[in-house]
Amino acid sequence: MDQNIAPLAARRSGPLKGRTRVPGDKSISHRSLILGALTVGQTRITGLLEGEDVINTGKAMRALGAAVERTGEGAWRVNGVGVAGFATPAAPLDFGNSGTGCRLVIGAVAGCPVTATFDGDASLRTRPMRRVLDPLERMGARASSVAEGGRLPLTLAGARDPVPIVYEPPVASAQLKSAVLLAGLAAPGETVVIEQEASRDHTERMLRHFGATVRVENEGAHGRRITLTGQPELTPAPITVPADPSSASFPLVAGLIVPGSEVILEGVMLNPLRTGLFATLREMGAAIEELDRRDEGGEDIADLRVRACALRGVTVPPERAPAMIDEYPVLAVAASFAEGTTRMRGLKELRVKESDRLAATVAMLRLNGVDVEVEGDDLIVHGRGRAGGGGLVATHMDHRIAMSALVMGLASEQPVRVDDTAFIATSFPGFVDMMRRMGGDFG
Ligand code: S3P
Fold first, then answer.
1. Which of 178, 190, 179, 180 is nearest to 231 (CA)?
2. What pLDDT digit, counting tens, does each position of 173-190 carry?
3. Would you give the end-to-end CA distance of the chain in angstroms?
4. Set 94, 201, 244, 326: catalytic member
5. pTM of structure
6. Whose CA is nearest to atom 15 of ligand 1?
7. How far does the centroid of ligand 1 lie from the alpha carbon of residue 174, in Å?
8. Rounded CA gap, 16 and 262, in Å?
9. Cβ contacts of residue 420 below 8 Å, gap of 6+?
10. What pLDDT is stored for residue 3 in this prediction?
């Protein structure tokens, strides 16, 4: 991570106009490198997100024995070592700011007879790891950490003979589910994950893409039962990474709240387990048009056209949270510019993201004159169709807080300043330049 602190202000802007493509999906990018490394042969990836989080996952794959090579912009080649084929790395694996990279690789290592040390930056060192270590220890891995709660840095000895488990995660988390499935690759028989709330399914889809047998059945009203047959031989297959809907949410919300704007975002992934924000914004009155809906690499994508319009407050049900878990800070910004109250229910998991995102979002809004409350795990924003702005927002090493605050500033009466934009590069390199090209005023 570039440790130079980079403060920035976003000022009220004229209409945002333009057509642009946000970077590749972060979840799919991490998984393409990890699963590519577990295949036998060469996987070619195009459209990879070249943000710091994903680059760190690539470095970890190299340290574990795969050949990972950049061949052009967003174009990468991975020569894998096969399931359970990782080698013991010579040095600790550093995941920087990325919980996803770290937890997924912990899972992948847990099924291999190697020992690795996992570390990250000050933000990642505060995040809970016990949740992944518990099921992986049941499968035969052994973790040791000097920090309380199994936090980083931790050392993991993978299982020599991993055992398959039936696992019901205590929280809706694609990272947790994926860690268990990745460890289950090396186990004989069936590894089962039962989710009460379906979370993003990129791991399941990509496992199938590489030839594994994965059965997915509905479980209860909102859940899924995922059964992986262990010890497959994964065969390489090309991966095309679509544009990240979570990254698209920032220019999209900016296009809705900056008067007179019209923005087109190209090739945005519309996986239904990722599009909770778009559904919510439509309920608030947003016109988000899908142009040229098509398939790319096994995912539905479309160009999204948004025009600025009046928004109204809504209630967002808790069962929608997994499909928009990363989008609440920017939804809270949209809710500030809506008329009426928006209640976002069931946001417990926001407290353990790159920052305590619930607290950081509340502080961001309050500092900029928006009336906001927290009731239990609910975030309540009383929108008045405007925000005063004028606040200096602490981003707490959290890229999504930084981008949300800057989006807010583009439509606020006074500029919104952020203390540090450096972490935006973890997921969305070039964000500020892209917004400037569409007419955003930053300085
Ligand atoms: C991700 C899962 C989510 C999300 C993160 C990416 C993934 O985390 O917040 O940005 O790629 O699996 P949880 O699974 O912990 O909710």
1. 190
2. 999 999 999 999 999 999
3. 22
4. 326
5. 0.98
6. 173
7. 6
8. 6
9. 5, 6, 7, 395, 397, 402
10. 57
Give Cα 73 to chain centroid, integer Å. 21
How far is residue 209's CA from residue 241's CA, in Å, rounded to a whole number?
13
- Clarify whether 326 is annotated catalytic: yes
Would the CB of 204 count as within 6 Å of ligand 1? Answer: no
Residue whose CA lies nearest to ligand 1 atom number 5: 100
Q: Which residues contact 433 (CB under 8 A, 6 or more apart)?
A: none
CA separation for the pair 222, 43 (Å, rounded): 34
Strand ranges across the sheet with 166-167? 166-167, 190-195, 223-229, 214-219
Q: How far apart are CA 181 and CA 159, in angstroms?
A: 14
Q: Which two tokens stand for residue 414?
A: 């006074």
* Tokens describing residue 438: 């569409």
Distances (CA, A) of 255 to 215, 307, 435: 40, 6, 10
Token pair, residue 327, equals 């989008």
CA 258 to chain centre: 25
Q: How many Å lie between the centroid of ligand 1 and the Cα of residue 175?
A: 5
pLDDT tens for 288-299 read 999 999 998 889
Closest CA to 19 of 272, 261, 244, 281: 261
**What is the rounded CA–CA span in Å between residue 93 and residue 369?**
42
